[in-house]
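Board notes, transcribed. Complex of a protein with zinc ion.
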Amino acid sequence: MGDLLGVTVTPVQPYAATKEYLCPGCELTVPPGTFHLVVVPDEAPDLRRHWHHGGGQKGMRRQFGAAQASRR
Ligand SMILES: [Zn+2]
């Protein structure tokens, strides 16, 4: 994921996942207690998203890549 510029990806351990989230990559829920990733755009910390581990890299690149391209 080194080519994702301007995005901070943080792993969330199962014990730290206490809520249910909606993964924007596959539009399925990330259940509590699931290891997953938090993706935070550096320029827009409010837009943090919770992704399933490993499954959403293409979607991540599409979503955040497009957002960045439109800013430049
Ligand atoms: Zn997902």
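The two ends are 21 Å apart (CA to CA). Helices lie at 57-71.
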